[in-house]
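The data are quoted verbatim for completeness:
=====
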Amino acid sequence: MCLEYDYIVVGAGSAGAVLASRLSESPDAHVLLIEAGGSHHQGRIEVPAAFPTQFNTDIDWAYRSEPEPYLNRRRIYHPRGKVLGGSSAMNAMIYIRGNRHDYDSWATSPDMGSWSYDEVLPLFKRSESNSSIRDKYHGTEGPLSVSDPRSPDEFRASFIAAALSVGLRQNGDFNGARQEGVGSFQLTQRDGMRHSTAAAFLDPLESRPNLTIMTNTDAHRVVIRNGRATGVVVEHDGRVETIGAASEVIICCGAFNTPKLLMLSGIGPETHLQALGIPTVVANDHVGAHLMDHPFYTVNFETDRPGTLFDSADRTVLRTYARERRGVLTSNIVEVGGFFSTRSGPAPDQQLLAGPAFFRDHGRRSHDKPAFMIGSSLVGSRSEGRVSLRDNDPHSAPSLRFNYFRESADMTSMVVACRLIREIAHSPSLRALTTRELDPRLGHSDADLADDVRRHVQHTYHPACTARMGAPGEGVVSPELRVHGLTALRIADASVFPSIPHGNTNAPTIMVAEKAADLIRSGF
């Protein structure tokens, strides 16, 4: 194995797979892609409806937060993909870019003009191969398949009718001219199977000689000499070695593991590093700070209608999927939803998510009869937390504290969303399908609702902002994604978001990788 490459990309997830693919398009660039997990060619990954079965397995980092102070001291489970494709290999496949305002607000910061919506839209389009929408907002020639649900459940029409009856309006494209409204989600699927970034960007490159992929390899730290990143210390097959990077090291380990790797390398809050015996290379209190996510609250309803995911184990269903890649197993569970506002602002602060399945506690609970779910994700969350180290052992999980609902405005918004869920569920088109309301049985007062949120809220798997872009003293990386205070070290993943987008974070993470590739190839 070569012990020096031009570029080392650490992490082969939603961003790293994209970036390694793009950098290796130049035949003169020798690229090493390092991944802690293994291959994504596994049946449980490819079957869309099976995504909850991946949680707490060998392809999941399976992190848990510290006791959350605003959630009755609950410790919150947080899955992250430990496999080629990262969390794009275990997410719900919803393709949402966020709101135009998200990127325009990033661009209002000093020297951040290149991140405005108009400037990142071509990057979104470059990745995308959209099979059904062809307009100025979408791409059709990219590696990543974006499609409508292949076998949409009839529940979709009932939910949309219910939402329209309470005053929401229909929207056929949440990534188009406007975000508000309700409709079907588009998904990162191809021919009824998940289309992760590994499937889209790496599988076609098996014969590319200048791209090397090391799986089952842990990154211990970035090697820094005289203010320059020169390589990465890794562990593979029980052996620790240093691999050199002649041009750059790019960290793509996600909102948890990117700040972890930075701090293990001596980049982070000086007091924290000193307490753990890690020599400080660059002191920066923003490393690991500003952790943001989208809290998610669900309500389940029992139904007596056939065709829900309750029937997914039926032999006919299994045969249909095996032969045709059609049927309920193509469902991403949350097939339909939309965006609405509970408070004034430039972007909707809540995302509705609904589907023909019982969904509770990340899919770990079940119900013995058919059911459907309606939930709301607080995409306008304002509360921030932090990622820290537990010790200086690279094998240790990071310490996570989200501080969900520390900002009282977040709970106020969620209570309003709870009432809208109940209103939608009680509309004629859904009431006709419902035999009874399951857990949780919503209380009536605002205090009752807030208490139930604290006891049952989950999240939408969208951690971000822990190595955010910003000026020196305000962030971790520059608008060119270079780590402040060092040369030849960049970050490209959801950790660099200056603020969390109003929507799912997979598509924006892919966009960041496309942007990083352009910056690196252009010499910026």
Residues 150-184+295-378+405-456 form a domain with the Cholesterol Oxidase; domain 2 fold (CATH 3.30.410.40). The longest helix spans residues 408-425.
